[in-house]
Specification:
Length: 147
């Protein structure tokens, strides 16, 4: 039983033909979604362009996961928004990035015992992997409690 967000991400990845961690490539995903990636000192999204900071492959992937949420699910110009609405969008983009960069449907097919397993398959940093593992384990606990 997946959440609405997990279903959304599952459908999105299936639509672009990505079904396993080894197929995840930020530039391929951007191309398949019609997005251009460019680099500047501050990350943001505008029209079909995602601007991220130049960094490690891991940091760029995690920034991309955040910014692609704004592209796919948010509208409006944050500079003209109420601060509380901006905060909401940022929270949603952070949460989205955990599920986009490390999809639940892919985790379900793997044997994941620790954060290092997530790092190995999805190339995210340790703190990100640890938080995603915690989310996944909480979901597993909830699933088993419902059965």
């Amino acid at each position: 039983m997946y959440s609405h967000l997990e279903d959304y991400i599952y459908d999105l990845y299936l639509k672009i033909g990505i079904t396993k961690p080894s197929e995840i490539d930020m530039f391929l995903i951007a191309k398949l979604l019609g997005v251009v990636i460019s680099y500047k000192k501050r990350s943001f999204r505008t029209d079909n362009e995602i601007v991220i900071n130049k960094g490690t492959i891991r940091s760029e992937w995690m920034m991309f996961g955040h910014e692609i949420c704004h592209y796919l699910r948010h509208v409006g110009i944050q500079l003209a928004m109420n601060r509380l609405f901006v905060d909401l969008q940022e929270y949603q983009a952070d949460y989205f990035s955990y599920h986009f960069c490390v999809p639940t449907f892919m985790l379900d097919k793997l044997e994941i015992n620790c954060a290092e397993d997530i790092i190995k398959h999805f190339d995210v940093d340790y703190e990100f992997a640890l938080r995603r593992l915690e989310m996944y384990e909480n979901k597993q606990y909830t699933r088993s409690a419902l059965l």
